[in-house]
Amino acid sequence: xxxxxxxxxxxxxxxxxxxxxxxxxxxxxxxxxxxxxxxxxxxxxxxxxxxxxxxxxxxx
Length: 60
Hints:
Layout: H1 3-12, H2 16-21, H3 23-35
């Protein structure tokens, strides 16, 4: 993976200090995350909730 891309992703995530101190660890985490991005399914309807809404007192 391109080190410049990882550096930009780390900066966007606020990981500048971690990137400076532990570049190999940040690169490894970025590669792992980008390698698993296909395993995440996004809801077809953005307004749909993945679980029932949580309301105080409901079901007690």
